[in-house]
Amino acid sequence: MSPTAQPISPTAFADLIGVTPDTVRRWVREKRIPAIRIGRHKLLIDPAEAVKLRTQVGAAPAFLTPASYIEKVLAEAPPLTDEQCNRLAELLRPARRAQAETVRQQAA
Asked: In this structure, are 86 and 69 located in the same domain?
């Protein structure tokens, strides 16, 4: 633990890095995150560990919006084939329609 940081709960830690508390608990079990166990059920985690995890793959930083996180992941991914592009467009079509409908309802 860092000397100045107050340890936090798995839920608070999860909020810092944008994952679920269950994911944090699993990472503690897997020894990916150091934690202090108090009694049988209480865990405390150094919030400084969040800074380390923000740079690892699989932990979406809390300071990124979903759209910017997706852009970052896509920028690092290999190019899509034409078939993959068509399938992605097909999958996104219902979401785009729902978003357009929501915008129309808000404007009315």
From this structure: no
Which of 38, 32, 52, 30 is closest to 7 using CA atoms? 38
Residue partners of 53: CB distance under 8 A and separation at least 6: 17, 33, 59
Rg, C-alpha atoms of the chain: 19
Segments forming the whole domain that contains residue 46: 1-76
Q: Which of 32, 31, 23, 42 is nearest to 13 (CA)?
A: 23
Give per-residue pLDDT as tens, 33-85: 899 999 888 999 988 887 777 666 454 555 556 666 677 777 778 888 999 98
Tell whether 60 and 89 lie within a shared domain: no
The structural domain count of the chain equals 2
Residue 64's contacts (CB-CB under 8 Å, 6 or more residues apart) are 18, 72
Q: How many CB atoms lie within 10 A of CB 25?
A: 18
